[in-house]
Design a protein that fits this description.
Distance between the termini of chain B: 61 Å
Oligomer: heterodimer
Order of helices and strands of chain A: HHHHH
CATH superfamily of the domain at 1-104 in chain B: RNA polymerase sigma factor, region 2, helix turn helix motif
Largest sheet of chain A: none
Largest sheet of chain B: none
Radius of gyration of chain B: 21 Å
Structural class of chain A: mainly alpha
Distance between the termini of chain A: 75 Å
CATH class of the domain at 1-104 in chain B: Mainly Alpha
Radius of gyration of chain A: 32 Å
Shape of chain B: elongated
C-alpha cells in the first residue's frame, strides 16, 4: 500500500512538471492587429447592446428554472387529468348562466 | 516620500476601470491598452489548457469575448481576475467543441510510453526528468490521458490537480458550484489513475 502511494505521488509529481514545462507562448504584432481589427468590426458597445447583454444574461440564468417549471406543470396537468375543453363543456351543460359569465368576464 | 517618477507613472497610466469606462462610452481604440496590458497573462492561461497550435486563436477569442462582455464587468473583482475567468471558460469551450466533433483520437497508450511510465514510476529508469526525452514523453503521456477525459473533467483536473488551485478558486473560474468541482475532481483523478495504472 505504501509503495503504491509512493508510486502515485511520483506519478503526480511527474505529470505536474510536464504540465508546467510547456514552453513560452508569444504573439507577434500581427496577432494584436488582427484582434483589434476584429474588435473594431464589431463596433462600439452601444447602450442597446449593453442592455441586451444584461437581459440575455438574466434570461439564460432563468432558463433552467423555467424549463423545470414547465415540466412540473405539464406533469401536474397530466396527473390531474385536466382537459380545459371538457371542463368548459361540462360547465355549459350544468350551468349556462355561469358559463356565460366565465366567457365574458373570465370569472 | 513618493518617487516623482512613480507618481507620474500612476498619473499617466489610466486604471483598468477607467479604460473599461472609456470603451463602454464608445472609444473602441482604448481597448488596445487592455489588450497590450494583459495579452501575456491571457497567453499564459490559455497555453496551459489548449494545444500549442490553438493558443493564438483561443487567446484572440478571449479578447473578443472580453470586449463584448465589458458591460457586465463588475468592479468587485480585478480586471485581471475577470479576464482569467473568460480565458478559462474559453478553453473549456474549446474542448467541448472538440469533444462534440469527435476530433479527439481514441488510440490506446503506445507501448513505449507504457514501458517508460513503469520505469519512471518505479524509479528504475535512472533518468532524471530534466532529460529532454523524458520531458517529451511525460508531456505526450499527459496529453494522451487528458484527451480521454470529458472537457469538464479535464478542466477541473488541470486547475485543481495540476495547477493546485482550491475547489473554490476553480469553481469561480469555471462558473460552477464548489460541489460540482469537487465531484468532478474526484472522478477525474480516479479516471486518470485507471488510465495510467
Amino acid at each position: 500500500m505504501k509503495s503504491l502511494k509512493k508510486d502515485y505521488a511520483r506519478l503526480k509529481d511527474l505529470l505536474m512538471r510536464a504540465y508546467h514545462e510547456k514552453g513560452k507562448s508569444e504573439v507577434d504584432e500581427l496577432w494584436q492587429m488582427r484582434v483589434m481589427s476584429h474588435i473594431r468590426s464589431l463596433g462600439p458597445i452601444t447602450s442597446r447592446k449593453r442592455y441586451f447583454m444584461l437581459f440575455e444574461q438574466s434570461v439564460w440564468r432563468l432558463a433552467p428554472v423555467t424549463c423545470l417549471l414547465i415540466l412540473v406543470l405539464a406533469a401536474l396537468l397530466i396527473t390531474l387529468d385536466f382537459i380545459p375543453d371538457y371542463e368548459m363543456v361540462k360547465l355549459l351543460i350544468d350551468d349556462p348562466v355561469e358559463f356565460t359569465f366565465v366567457q365574458l368576464f373570465g370569472l | 516620500m513618493n518617487d516623482p517618477e512613480s507618481v507620474n507613472n500612476s498619473l499617466s497610466k489610466p486604471s483598468d476601470a477607467e479604460i473599461v469606462r472609456r470603451v463602454i462610452e464608445g472609444d473602441i481604440n482604448a481597448f488596445e491598452s487592455l489588450l497590450v496590458r494583459y495579452k501575456g497573462h491571457v497567453l499564459e492561461v490559455v497555453k496551459r489548457h489548449v494545444p500549442y497550435n490553438e493558443v493564438e486563436e483561443t487567446a484572440h477569442d478571449v479578447f473578443v469575448r472580453a470586449y463584448l462582455s465589458l458591460p457586465t464587468f463588475e468592479k468587485r473583482s480585478s480586471f485581471k481576475q475577470w479576464l482569467s475567468t473568460i480565458a478559462v471558460r474559453a478553453c473549456h469551450d474549446f474542448w467541448r467543441k472538440r469533444y462534440r466533433s469527435r476530433e479527439v483520437p481514441m488510440s490506446s497508450l503506445a507501448e513505449e510510453h507504457q514501458e517508460w511510465l513503469e520505469k519512471v514510476v518505479s524509479n528504475r529508469s535512472g533518468q532524471s526528468f530534466d532529460d529532454r526525452n523524458s520531458q517529451k514523453k511525460a508531456r505526450e503521456l499527459l496529453d494522451w490521458a487528458l484527451d480521454r477525459l470529458s472537457p469538464g473533467d479535464r478542466m477541473v483536473l488541470e486547475l485543481v490537480y495540476l495547477e493546485g488551485l482550491s475547489g473554490r478558486e476553480a469553481a469561480d473560474l469555471l462558473g460552477w458550484s464548489v460541489a460540482n468541482v469537487k465531484v468532478r475532481s474526484l472522478r477525474a483523478r480516479r479516471k486518470l489513475r485507471d488510465l495510467l495504472a
